[in-house]
């Protein structure tokens, strides 16, 4: 049963009939009450409805991945055509990440209080499509900055809502694989964007800068997907409770969940875990400075993102398999194993393999290994565990909080940190020349500067991430047992910390 296809034709059934959900009371707060109410209110989904929902969710994830990689894939084209420094390019990424962080919890709360999630996803796709097309039109940095800020608001409307829908339609033993499929689709979008946008970014197409053409194409496709969502996707409704929204209540719910140690650890892990993946978006620029052509650099990154997409789907299945072996520790072991295998791969790519075009085969091999093994944490551990300890009524806003924190550290901190380290400590110098025309020494210095920056900003966060997962071995089994015993909030937290970790 663990290795069955993502959907079974033994529907209809409620999502929680096969394996009990953590529905015991964590205390007296709103989060605790909602956990108790979830069992009776869970809807029934047919096989066809699930397939319809997952198809459109995967389309949205695909577009989210395309948008995530579109700007990094065009860094060199923007640097050449608009004479924008690496620091300014990093600030463009930071602007989008900032508004994404600020808007995610707001949209998540609206979704949990009954605002139609299909309409929210449709609106988000239409908005980010329009803003992406406008980005292709403007030349001024201030205008592009404003559009990136607005684009972050549109993105915040979509991704957390998608994750909450998956948690609604899937039982616990299938959530890993469904999260894996969705995240795999997202990385397929990164793959398509990295290959196509990179090869187009520095070219002139019909007298137009190639990066402008790629931005326009992505914007048009986003608008078409938004229209398709509105016309054809099955909606996943929630009871309308918009009048209940208030800031004090939202903060109280978050505080209620933060009293669950395993929930807090997942949050802390996400803060560190997102940084390396955003840092690795500079790999394309790194390979360009090594001396590979734009097309070859895009192909290398495509290999990495394809392997990453495959690894996330694989991680979902591996997580479900280890969950069957040990419901308390299986998913956590998968996440720690993934981090431990990813660290040496990054070190070899950015620090050991020489910056020479003759090493292309080794780059391809290590990029494929990195993508396959370092991507199991989200689908195999984080998302399934969150869906077990969080009420379905609060799922969208909790994923929004989690996504906001991760995105803040990834999209806001990572690009700025790479630019800061490369320029201030490792002697990176921006240049509007074509890379092939640059002096070999300057090109090699820039490649080494980017490589050293990426090394520090991937290895250190991943070591911290591995450590955070270790605490889950202590807290997650205890949280489940104490939930079944109806232990009050304070005792749950204080007891977990004071009494140690007898489960290890």
TrEMBL record:
It comes from the Eukaryota. One of its GO terms (cellular component) is membrane. The chain crosses the membrane at residues 119-138, 144-166, 210-234, 263-287, 299-320, 332-354, 360-377, 398-422, 454-472. One of its GO terms (molecular function) is transmembrane transporter activity. Its main location: membrane. Belongs to the major facilitator superfamily. Spinster (TC 2.A.1.49) family. This is Major facilitator superfamily (MFS) profile domain-containing protein. It comes from Alexandrium monilatum.
